[in-house]
Amino acid sequence: MQRLFTGLQPSGALHIGNYFGALKPAVEMCREYDGLVMIADYHALTSLKNPDALRRNILGVVKDYMAAGLDPAHTILFKQSDVPEHTELAWIFQCLVTVPFLELSHAYKDKVAKGLEANAGLFAYPMLMAADILLYDTDVVPVGEDQRQHLEYAREAAAKFNNAFGETFKEPKEKILKSIAVVPGIDGKKMSKSYGNTIPLFATKDEIAKLVMSIITDSKAESPVNVYSIHALFRTREELSTLYTENKGKYKVLKEALIDDIEALIAPMRAKRDAISDEDAKRIIKEGGEKARERASKKIADVRTKVGVSV
Ligand code: ADP
Ligand code: TRP
Q: What is the residue range of the signal peptide feature (predicted)?
């Protein structure tokens, strides 16, 4: 079975764009692979300096994945900080790459341009991500388009190490998740937490209803485009064609239909999520961390011997 590795920063509540664009396809892929899903808490520390929020977000991500159908008996779900081999290998990679090479990172430049502090952790971010992936002889990494360059960095780190110390790491391939187009937000722009236009995945029915009712519609148009494009995630084109033709101009009816469709998807997931206690979530990642560490420690032993720190 091929090995899959993916990760997600615990940086806040997920929205339906994250669900359709990342969570759902990753959970589906995991069923076909020997999979590891990692909560990138040390990556999150490059920007999040609030311990209570970080703790809450970590447990939240565990529950999100479980609610979306991840089976922890089949897929290892763990957090980065529980496997110190990640930061150890990241250091070794940092000693192999140059500052100008890391300066080419779009993600780094974008984040600094947006006003994030240019801390050294943010700068070295791609080497920690390379370590995450390479420690497990990963074949495939499902990620969003924005992560493509990070995969190039990971392959480069593997090649640099292999050249310097002999064949050790497998070069992984990205699997860019673009099963569906970009999910639009309530204002028609890309749904993103940085635009404040999201429909949260695990909001209450009332919160969802309020947000859907606030979707911006053009009063002159026959069909409300912003409602339709979110609706297209939930129903086939044929179903929507009937619904939107029968209710031409009746924006309220169409929005109510969308609320019902969102609720039909989310209600069972919400119930599943609510049934998972913090204690359950902690136990799941603790067990996942132990399994991941068992694999990672074998790889790092080989790395230590090769670089010469094991005497
Ligand atoms: P945000 O833009 O809200 O900050 P993130 O950058 O944290 O979202 O996204 C995490 C993952 O969710 C991304 O890798 C991307 O694949 C997916 N994603 C985010 N927003 C959307 C969207 N509007 N449509 C589809 N996928 C999305
Ligand atoms: N950088 C990824 C993101 O922000 C999260 C991540 C960390 C990751 N390590 C990873 C993704 C390893 C895939 C593989 O979305």
A: none
